[in-house]
Sequence to fold (371 residues):
Amino acid sequence: MMEQPATMPFQAADMDSAFRALFDSSPCGLILLDEAGRIVHVNQRLQDIFDYDASEMLGQPVEMLLPHRDRAQHVGLRDGFIKSPSVRPMGLGRDLSGRRKDGMEIPVEIALTFVDLPQGRMTCALVIDITLRKRAELRLREANVQLEEFTHVASHDLRSPLRGIANLIEFIEEDYGESAPPEVRRNLGRMADRISAMERLIDDLLTYARAGRRTLKTEAIDLGSIVDEVIALEAPGPGVHIDVDIALEPFEGVRVPISTVLRNLVSNAVKHHDLDEKHILVRARAEGIMCVIDVRDDGPGIAQAAQGRAFRLFQTVSSSGRNNAGLGLAVTKRLVEAHGGNIELMSDDGQRGCHFRVYWPRFARSDLDDC
Fold:
């Protein structure tokens, strides 16, 4: 007995119905044009993008969906495409705009293709409204510009008076010489310490600003050796026990940022621990396209009410919710996200320990690396 095929082959009518269903249900705007550039068919998403009903568009020139300034030029471009069609994005390298029914312009991305039908050659355009993406890009650019401006002020306008105060302290110390009373020497020392602290804070601000810039040079990353270097540099001292479990093959990446992230997390675990005996675990494994790095400690942890502030500027939070000035975790988060990764904080109330998990890309991605 002959086995029946699992699925029956499509008939021409079935293909026509399937095409129409796919066209009408597409999440992207789709528009079909005849050889004269008139609108033959549109799907629901295109109606939503431009706020026109299909009945208002059918039979009209496609230029009705363009800003007035672009319409005359577009007629020539459209005729050129019909004479020599190809599958390609439209306006590559340029910002494209559409025009809604109410006159509002919207940023769009458009891809073009063509199909030969009994009625003639048809042009099909795929239209995507990228308004939300453009808004997000604008907000990000504005935030980065403001941060650059702020750090420039911090670097130049704050450093100068600090240096002036430091010089005055040196002059006073020279004038007093060895005859300075102990209380005066103590107070001058405290002032010098405060100035040094402020200078370190300025350096940290500059580090935070630069952390948002992606490093492009890649090399083979051996995470085990990087962790060993971090531990050696931290020189944690007696009472600090760091266990390392790296189950990961070397991968292509950027060494300095990932080393900085690990150093900040290990340093954070040591610095904020409240016991003489400190236990820290650094573990890494591959998970899909990501390298998953866990840094855990058995310290006091971070209260859930304070975890939302942990990655903010000038926030150092403890299990009690008390916070002090700090930038370590803010820099860490900025570095991780600038290189296409993500960082999570896991710490439960009533239980000791803090757990940071970093997701770091193991492979180059066109949206991050093809610059």
Summary: The longest strand covers residues 105-117.
